[in-house]
Task: structure prediction
Amino acid sequence: MYQRFWGAQKAITLTQHKWQRGNRENSLSFSSALLVDGIIQEGFTLKGSAIKDLPNCHVSFVISHKGTSEYGKGVAIARADWKPLRIHNNRNFGEPEYRFLDQETSHYHDFTENYELGDEIWVDRKLPIAYPINPEPATFENFLEFTGEKFRIGNISSIPIPPWNYDTQSDLF
Result:
């Protein structure tokens, strides 16, 4: 099921293109059902997250599946992280040159490579394999373009820029 979905060209629905206040203070979230051949795929969602007072950093998009699977409340299929605040380390998974390497830049958790680890690893460890995004996306729009290409979502560019608070100064980046 997951492999067939992952390989298909997808689209987000055209009704919910708005960032919302997230579950945590100062967080923003985005959510859209995913379509394949114009049909909503039950349980598959594109979710986005950002922090209102941190413009142009710490943005994530994840494709997740929630439904009648053996994974209970849901499972992440793939994720892309732009200028994250936390370091990612593949530990002893993935290509040898990226094992035990602290990745401080934008990175991408590919479905296929994580899925091949087996259920007990890719589900329980929440997509343990990631690789740096090169070149580093300079803008939110560049990150959307990268994510759309990797996730095979043709109309992802219709997602608006998060409503960041640019009055807050951050010296993180």
Remarks:
- The helical segments are 2-7, 111-115, 119-122, 140-151.
